[in-house]
Amino acid sequence: MKAIRRFSVRPVLPEPLRPLNRLARNLRWSWHPETRELFESVDPEGWRESGGDPVRLLGAVPLSRLADLAEDRSFLRRLTAAADDLHDYLTGPRWYQGRAAAEDRAGPGPVGPVPTVPPGEPVPSAPSAAPAPSAPPAPSGLPAAIAYFSPEFGITAALPQYSGGLGILAGDHLKAASDLGVPLVGVGLLYRHGYFRQSLSRDGWQQEHYPVLDPDELPLTQLCGTDGRPVRSPLTLPGGRPLRARVWQAQVGRVPLLLLDSDVEENGHGEREVTDRLYGGGSEHRLLQEMLLGIGGVRALRAYCGLTGHPEPEVFHTNEGHAGFQGLERIRELIAAGADFDAAHEAVRAGTVFTTHTPVPAGIDRFDRELVARHFGDGAELPGIEAERILALGMETYPGGEPNLFNMAVMGLRLAQRANGVSTLHGRVSREMFAGLWPGFDPEEVPITSVTNGVHAPTWTAPEVTRLGARQFGHLGDSELWELRRTLRKRLVAEVRQRLYASWRQRGAGTAELGWIDGVLDPDVLTIGFARRVPSYKRLTLMLRDRDRLMELLLHPERPVQIVVAGKAHPADDGGKRLIQELVRFADDPRVRHRLVFLPDYGMGMAQKLYPGCDVWLNNPLRPLEACGTSGMKAALNGCLNLSVLDGWWDEWYEPDFGWAVPTADGDAIDETRRDDLEAAALYELLERRIAPRFYDRGLDGLPGRWIAMVRRTLTTLGPKVLAGRMVREYAERLYAPAARSHRALTPEAAAELAAWKSRIRAAWPDVAVDHVEAHLTPPAPGGAAELGSTLSLRVRVRLGALDPADVEVQAVAGRVDDTDRITDATHVPLKPTAGPDLAGSRRYEAPLALNRTGPFGYTIRVLPTHPLLSHPAEPGLIAIPSETTSEAAGVLMR
Question: Where in this protein does the record put region Disordered (predicted)?
């Protein structure tokens, strides 16, 4: 008989074992081996059955076992040591505190009173109208707190709230921030069905399953007010429909993570399902999720800070565009405190960092204009902000855009003073992709920088590798290092056989027909891994391009190769599902099924076994569509060599010592089929001619010395580069600290002044022009030829209209020119005003321009707005350059 309602009854632990609760509720156990070993010793069989989840484990341990443990002095000593270690980790100073102590301390600038609650409905037990508590004195650069918003977080398989790289990156960001002591607060959504669990039909078609997650069985606690009532984060939907969300808290080491859940009884049926699935539903469902994440997330954050005394964040970091609405809620707060929209917009931008993760327009959430207008049109959700203002932030009103679409990434960029891509190449691609937002500027000047992603070593490194540590790999003997790699490969073989057996049973196979699985893979064969999401651009089936050639590689009598593949296609992506089916059908062939396997239900638990056991990690996306590709980083941490297209992180850190680069035809004018043929052939060639021979080339000692040297180099030199700690330190110093300084500088008065200045500049800019350019060589050269070491004296007449010289900077932009006269490797030289205005209203500017390089050389003149509070010269998106007639006149004078 089926239960009509389900709930969990939590165990009451004996007093000596109470510290187990705290250890289980803090997700640090997911990357702390000693704590995991402690829980495993509680009940080894129960630990395996729970999937390594301490909360589930403690809910299933027999009372008799708990009673025995409460009397076990050895266990209690280990428990005390683990509890003390966690306390020290949570309270002791770390990198961030040391970095802060090295700076002069200065109190943050005031930002004016900020209401802690949304209009019309107070948060229970939180102050209903008082301003949010101000942050305590903070170092003159580093923020007192940072809010990190993301639609998904991959912390541990025990909290399945992720679909792929974006969520895993967010989880690693929180973990590294915790290790470094960075005062981060994560904000996301709690999806009752997570993403999905994947299985295969008998004919290899992906099938999705959505098991219900019970928050009471997860490592979460509800955020409650001082009266014990659960906090609600409310929104108002069209027609006055309320949407309320409870707030769950996970503790990720030192970092609190707030997750909003709309499945509460006060909501209607439709509203309860807003947080049912990650990336599920249609456009309206996604829009509601993103409104709840952004707007509801800020409200939950304010309630959390008010109840716990946590410092209010000075910096808000938006991880991809999904959480962009958080900027609108912060604007609403400031308007409620007395600011106008433009001043509030400037204040919010100053403290916001936006990270874009996709080089593919199709990967960005875009909504029809009317859908967004309907949800914000009545002003009930964001009073004081007209719908047209909201629409203007996200509409693609630029050349090449679709003016009827609301683009979440565009809104994220317009609401953030600082933005970044996630690798050097991705930063360049992003500048080109979003250049339309800064018309007149070359893509390289678009204000989007890059911070290359990193991965959290304690999460992704095999325990055996962790125990040795990077320093020891330089001294470890070849035989010991090779034995370590074989141990990890052997463990992967056992894991693959177990998972493959379970998969075939799900596909309907009987035990009697699965004896062949005992011979799948070989711990002494070169093992290649390929695991990731399955959009078309990642090219899951490129390896199948020439099946006969692949089969020869797999079955080579002396140098065989074996491949382990895993990945999920989005439930709505039938094209991705067909790719999976194509690969599965090939892998089902009895001739090769012992050498190539597809494992369904790829997730963190599988990944942590897969990366260490592979010898080579394969990545073959369409360049440059891989923003970063962190799976190869995780493999590298375990001594796995990379075989990848030069895309994402591999483009900037590839060296022959670390692996191999797959040649690409992305710059050639060829069709897609021809390109894939060429790149697949290059992949086969590398495997046949270079990779397999190096793996199997054994010296007199029976060891592959050259291969081991590459493994050693990967562990000692590449490993330290790919760490999430390096990434978070870069965010703190290059983005968070400048954002905090801008936030403090933008007092209400300063924000109003900056907004008024921008308004005045935009109104006057049509009258700004470069009227005349003169250029004279000194010393004069015979025939007017320019020589190295001479100087070009520039004299320029600029019309400023109603603006003052203090409002602008006049620059000469000079450098080498290509065949199209485009300036490359540019130098910017400011010109100084020397006279004006004349009768025509023009002012004269002058500057010397040193000719310090040979070859084709060119220059131009431009006028930019300038203000001390701008973060970048391109921020206002305004530029004035010479007209064609002015340029022609300048050329005549030059000659």
Answer: 103-137
- The structure tokens listed for 287 are 């829009």
Report the run of H or E that residue 21 belongs to, with start and end: helix 19-25
441 and 475 assigned to the same domain: no
pLDDT score at 777: 86
CATH number of the domain enclosing 829: 2.70.50
Closest CA to 69 of 33, 34, 43: 43
CA atoms of 855 and 833, how far apart (whole Å)? 30
Instruction: Pinpoint the alpha helices (H) of 660-747.
Output: 672-686, 692-696, 705-713, 724-730, 737-745
Q: Are 626 and 633 in contact (CB under 8 A)?
A: no
Listed in sequence order, the residues at least 6 apart from 107 whose beta carbon sits closer than 8 Å to its beta carbon are 137, 138
Q: How far apart are CA 617 and CA 633, in angstroms?
A: 9
How many CB atoms within 10 Å of residue 811? 23
Q: For 15-44, write each residue's pLDDT tens digit.
A: 999 999 999 999 999 999 999 999 999 999
**Helices 478-506/604-613 angle, 10° precision:** 140
Half-sphere exposure in the Cβ direction for 20 (13 Å, CA): 31
Cα 52 to Cα 157: distance, rounded to the nearest angstrom: 9
* Beta-bridge mates of residue 354: 318, 419
Distance CA 26, CA 250 (A): 7
In whole angstroms, what is the distance from residue 387 CA to residue 372 CA? Answer: 8
Nearest to 553 by CA among 693, 707, 687, 697: 687
For a pLDDT cut of 90, what percent of the chain falls above it? 81
Type of residue found at 660 = W
Distance, C-alpha 720 to centroid of its chain: 19
Indicate the pLDDT class of residue 11, thresholds 50, 70 and 90.
Answer: confident
477/481 Cα distance (integer angstroms): 6
pLDDT at 113: 34
Q: For residue 857, which phi and psi values (nearest 5 degrees)?
A: -140, 145
Burial of 825-841, coded b for 16+ CB within 10 Å and e otherwise, reads ebeebebebeebeeeee
- CA-CA distance, 263 to 271, in Å (whole number)? 8
Residue 809 CA to chain centroid, in angstroms? 35
Residues 446 and 473 in one domain: no
| Span 700-728, pLDDT tens digits | 999 999 999 999 999 999 999 999 999 99
Q: How far is CA 339 from CA 1, 331, 347, 573, 747, in A?
A: 60, 9, 10, 45, 11
Residue 408 CB contacts under 8 Å (≥ 6 apart), including other chains: 290, 321, 322, 324, 364, 365, 366, 367, 394
Q: What is the CATH number of the domain that holds 537?
A: 3.40.50.2000
Lay out the sheet containing 596-599: strands in order across.
596-599, 561-566, 526-531, 616-619, 641-645, 659-662
The count of domains in the chain is 4
Same-domain pairing of 154 and 201: yes
Count CB neighbours of 856 within 10 A: 12
- Tell me which of 194 and 140 has the higher pLDDT: 194
The span from the CA of 393 to the CA of 70, in Å, is 60
Range of the domain at 810: 764-890
**Nearest C-alpha neighbor of 247 from the set 263, 235, 230:** 230
Give Cα separations from 606 to 44, 175, 611 (angstroms).
19, 20, 9
Output the DSSP codes for 23-35.
HHHBGGGGG-HHH
Please report the DSSP string for 37-80 in residue order: HHHHHH-HHHHHHTTS-HHHHHHHS-HHHHHHHHT-HHHHHHHH
Distance (Å, whole) CA 391 – CA 300:
25
**Amino acid at the residue 39:** F
Residues 553, 684 within the same domain: yes
